Amino acid sequence: MSTFLKGVLVLNLLIAASYVGTRVHAQRPPELDTTGAAYLRVNINPTDIPPMVNINPYETVPKVEITRLPEIRIPASGCQNRQNFQTGIGRSISGPLMITYLHLPQQTVATLTDGNDSHSMNLGAAGQITTAIYLQPNQRLDFDSEIMYSGCRPDQ
Question: What is the greatest pairwise CA distance in the chain?
Fold first, then answer.
């Protein structure tokens, strides 16, 4: 390599080093709180005036009313006649029947059909009912999987 090229190379390296030397800044580590956790300071209000929020712009007093409905309790009673007791496993339960035990598998979808109308609902996780379900003579409860049930048919 010629002396001229060596000189140009050295000159370029000196220029690059002086440029990089003036542009390099060390980054400070983040500030630490009393527990040693790092955090960044953020000024969300750069003025000396604290922010004001009017939460009641019309100067009205909110009105709150609580309505207490009477508690309705219908006690589930067992069958008066043991021959009216029914238990089974299936995908459908037809009324009239007072269901007192219903064991559901995971994520069961139930459809209540009465005459010409039907309503579906997701019964969620597995479990048992804690009350009675009263099915009228024209009602049917259908499930998307096999369930176990028991209950009492009314006296005929």
Answer: 119
